[in-house]
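Q: Please design a sequence for this.
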């Protein structure tokens, strides 16, 4: 799919070259903030995929684990999946409402 121009298309690009030359530039072009010196590559997409599957698409964590080929579901949930900021704020709002605290003072 992404042949090496140096090898006249006989071998694929290495993942590192693909990430540095194409993936990072495409991510920045669509607005992903990647500070200078921070790594961004194919592995970053595994974290995004895990979060999308479990948090947004509501896929069963065991299915996400198998999809990502992790040996343990704990790896998927504890290391790869990140909470969605909107859902976190909604949960905080629900908690404050349950406590009957004034929500307009909380940011």
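A: Design:
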């Amino acid at each position: 799919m992404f042949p090496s121009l140096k090898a006249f298309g006989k071998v694929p690009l290495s993942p590192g070259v693909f990430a540095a030359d194409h993936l990072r530039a495409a991510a920045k072009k669509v607005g992903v903030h990647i500070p200078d010196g921070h790594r961004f590559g194919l592995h970053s997409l595994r974290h995004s995929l895990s979060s999308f599957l479990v948090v947004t698409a509501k896929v069963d964590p065991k299915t996400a684990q198998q999809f990502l080929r992790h040996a343990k579901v704990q790896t998927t949930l504890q290391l790869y999946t990140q909470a969605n900021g909107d859902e976190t704020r909604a949960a905080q709002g629900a908690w404050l409402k349950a406590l009957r605290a004034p929500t307009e003072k909380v940011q």
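Q: Thanks. Anything notable?
A: Residues 11-40 form one domain. The chain has two domains: 11-40, 47-107.
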